[in-house]
User: Which sequence fits this backbone?
């Protein structure tokens, strides 16, 4: 899975990661702590969330049908594993890249999150832990 | 030791588990019921009251005397230190087997008990298999080991309710608080309506979920991996055993205790999630289950008897977490009951009393956790689409 980190990192860091919480959407941005995200995690009794999409593996665009099918497969996998997850959307604030559906999985380890991202061909995922700024995890790191 | 796990609303330090028998001993309180059964069976009369009194009233009285227990064990405790805790769940199947079939053997051969006393005794034994046996089966069925899962199935076989495992793991846990979960009691639904509804819906629902699982693996319904074969075989085996030990009277007593046990189970199910619903996010998507989707009780002695089942929020967040490590979530993040489950279940048998006690609590829960929702009617009727991915 070729990931051009130098090219992708600024794009991923600029993106908005919108989590659909029960109290309304919460927008996460890399490196910016969020009291709303902390409240959301507190309400869900969770310590962390890891947002993973199955859309557009390696940031190569696929058709909407392919993306939806891949995302449904990810959702099935998450449900079968018994993980709790909130739906969300990744957005390019410049509007140049189409929105991507995502699943923000509660309380999975970074290792498992990376493995899942790799399985779905993703270069990176967003991870937010309670009381800390969200960060990017690159899936090819151990 | 600092908190490193999920937030429980409580910043108290975690206490370590050393792994000694002495610290696990309170959870062995269930064994006290065995001499009570023997005493009730040999004495009859008033002594029969001891069997329901022990789990329902005596433990509730002790709860009032001992105060709540909100201490949390370190959830990272190694499995090896939980041996004495786990052991009580591992040894329970032969004990319950002996209690039920020993009871059948004893009363069908002796002539000292009148017909109503025999029924009274097996009512009490049903309370034991329901309160303790099914609670332990529930703990066992959530574990990975084959031995524990088998013991869970055997215990559920003793109450002729094997499909509970499928329903609980494949439907209740993923879909609690949504229209897919039959055992989430709807707001204002009395237990007398709830009970027949779940008795009818759960076997069908469990069957459907298992069939979907088999289909995903490319297997037909009649494949041996369908656990309904096992459920049926165990039920048949135990009924045959009851007949061999006590003839048709033995079968009648066995089925009667099973019914009482199932009533106890469904009463607990009713209490655990009454009126609590997950927010519908649109298009069949629901928020994940959170600590506020279960009713909890920090009552010390009933938590010993029910091996921390009343720490129910944490159980739903971490279903495989072993009972000694379940965390107490306080009232800021998880709704609390005024009594332990046994006494609360007792109130549930009187619907007007139940609604007077619980409906204001559900309304307060709605205001606290979902101030943005003004129309609760669709939630009350569960008038939303089934969750996506639900089988």
Assistant:
């Amino acid at each position: 899975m070729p990931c051009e980190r130098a090219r992708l990192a600024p794009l991923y860091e600029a993106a908005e990661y919108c989590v659909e919480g029960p109290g309304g959407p919460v927008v996460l941005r890399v490196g910016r702590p969020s009291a709303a995200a902390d409240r959301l995690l507190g309400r869900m009794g969770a310590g962390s969330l890891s947002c993973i999409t199955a859309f557009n593996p390696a940031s190569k665009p696929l058709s909407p049908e392919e993306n939806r099918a891949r995302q449904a497969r990810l959702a099935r996998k998450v449900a079968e594993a018994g993980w709790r997850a909130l739906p969300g959307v990744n957005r390019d604030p410049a509007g140049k890249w189409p929105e991507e559906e995502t699943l923000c999985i509660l309380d999975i380890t970074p290792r498992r999150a990376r493995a899942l991202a790799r399985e779905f061909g993703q270069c990176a995922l967003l991870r937010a832990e309670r009381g800390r700024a969200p960060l990017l995890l690159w899936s090819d790191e151990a | 030791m600092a908190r490193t796990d999920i937030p429980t609303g409580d910043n108290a330090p975690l206490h370590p588990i050393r792994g000694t028998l002495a610290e696990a001993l309170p959870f062995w309180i269930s064994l006290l019921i065995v001499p009570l059964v023997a005493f009730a069976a040999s004495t009859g009369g008033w002594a029969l009251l001891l069997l329901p009194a022990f789990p329902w009233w005596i433990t509730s009285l002790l709860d009032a005397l001992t105060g709540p227990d909100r201490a949390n064990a370190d959830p990272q405790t190694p499995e090896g230190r939980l041996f004495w805790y786990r052991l009580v769940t591992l040894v329970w199947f032969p004990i319950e087997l002996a209690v039920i079939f020993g009871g059948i053997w004893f009363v069908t051969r002796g002539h000292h008990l009148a017909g109503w006393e025999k029924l009274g005794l097996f009512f009490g034994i049903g309370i034991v298999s329901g309160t303790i046996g099914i609670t332990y089966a529930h703990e066992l069925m959530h574990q990975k080991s084959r031995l524990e899962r088998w013991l869970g199935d055997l215990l559920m076989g003793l109450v002729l309710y094997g499909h509970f495992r499928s329903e609980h793991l494949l439907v209740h846990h993923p879909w609690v608080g949504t229209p897919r979960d039959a055992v989430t009691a709807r707001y204002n639904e009395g237990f007398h309506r709830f009970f027949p509804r779940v008795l009818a819906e759960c076997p069908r629902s469990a069957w459907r979920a298992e069939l979907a699982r088999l289909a995903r693996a490319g297997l037909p319904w009649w494949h041996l991996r369908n656990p309904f074969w096992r459920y049926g075989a165990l039920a048949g085996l135990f009924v045959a055993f009851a007949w061999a030990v006590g003839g048709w009277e033995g079968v009648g007593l066995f089925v009667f205790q099973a019914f009482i046990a199932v009533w106890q189970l469904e009463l607990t199910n009713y209490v655990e999630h009454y009126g609590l619903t997950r927010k519908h996010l649109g298009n069949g998507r629901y928020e994940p289950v959170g600590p506020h989707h279960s009713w909890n009780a920090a009552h010390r002695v009933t938590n010993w008897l029910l091996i921390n089942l009343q720490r129910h929020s944490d159980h739903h967040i971490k279903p495989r977490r072993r009972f000694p490590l379940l965390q107490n979530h306080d009232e800021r993040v998880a709704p609390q009951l005024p009594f332990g489950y046994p006494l609360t279940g007792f109130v549930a048998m009187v619907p007007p009393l139940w609604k007077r006690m619980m409906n204001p609590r559900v309304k307060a829960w709605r205001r606290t956790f979902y101030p943005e929702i003004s129309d609760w009617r669709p939630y009350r009727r569960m008038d939303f689409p089934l969750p996506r991915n639900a089988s």
In short: Chain A touches chain B at residues 20-24, 41-47, 72, 75-76, 79, 82, 84-87, 106-107, 130 (CB under 8 Å). The longest helix of chain A spans residues 64-80. The radius of gyration of chain A is 14 Å. Chain A has four helices and seven strands.
